[in-house]
Amino acid sequence: MNKKSLLIAAAVILVVLAAALAWNFFGGEEGVSAGAEAVIRAATTGPNPDLYNPEASMQIGLGAEPTEEERAAAQKAAEQQQANWEAAVGQYFAEGALEQFINNGYAMGYLMTADAAGQTLETGELTLVEKTDSHETVDFTYLLGGTEYQVRAEFSVGADGLISRAEFVAVS
User: Fold this and answer.
1) How far is residue 65 CA from its own chain's centroid?
2) Is residue 74 included in any domain, yes or no?
3) Is 104 helix (H, G, I), strand (E, B) or coil?
4) Which of 8, 11, 49, 144 is 20 to 30 Å from 77 by CA-CA measure?
């Protein structure tokens, strides 16, 4: 190889390295991931009787004596609700993580509030705050009865790309 060929080869290698570093530094993926967006929109768009059915809940405590029929109806509604969540966003969650998201109240908290108040719930703007191989942070807004609220969603992501933990934290 002559000197000119070596210089050209070195220049090409430098350009490729610079592109790889820029890709790594500025992020290969732009915007909120499809999974995070689907989960946020599912939890903050309503009314949605498929994802929140008040019949899936029973009153418990002093003076509340549900009948066997009421218990069976609530159990059936809860199982259908779980299946609907699985169909809506289950593909984005690791095994057991969707159940945890639902059981911790993040999934249906906003839908339940809107239903109890008889108001509509609408997802607003989603903004990616941070994204790594194992974590994604998204700020988003939602409208409840005309009032805008801001929330931060934190997603832990496994090596398989599936959500292993999802939490919503109210900002305002």
Assistant:
1) 36
2) yes
3) coil
4) 144
Provide the mean pLDDT of the chain. Answer: 85
Beta strands per DSSP E along the chain: 121-131, 135-144, 147-157, 163-170
Which tens digit of pLDDT belongs to each residue from 37-70?
999 999 999 999 999 999 998 777 677 788 899 8
Give a yes or no: residue 8 inside a domain. Answer: no
3 inside domain: no
Q: How many domains does the chain have?
A: 1
Sign of the C-alpha dihedral, residues 45, 46, 50, 55?
Answer: positive
How many CA within 13 A on the CB side of residue 165?
Answer: 6
* Other Cβ atoms closer than 10 A to 163: 22
CA-to-CA dists, residue 56 to 53, 70, 129, 154, angstroms = 6, 10, 35, 27
Q: What is the mean pLDDT of residues 10-27?
A: 40
Q: What span, in angstroms and rounded, lies between the C-alpha atoms of 42 and 136?
A: 17
The CATH number given to whatever domain includes residue 126 is: 3.10.450
Q: What angle do CA 67, 70, 76 make, to 5 degrees?
A: 140
Q: Is the pLDDT of residue 152 over 70?
A: yes
Residue 164: pLDDT band with limits 50, 70, 90: very high
Neighbours of 48 (CB within 10 A): 18
**Whole-prediction pTM:** 0.79
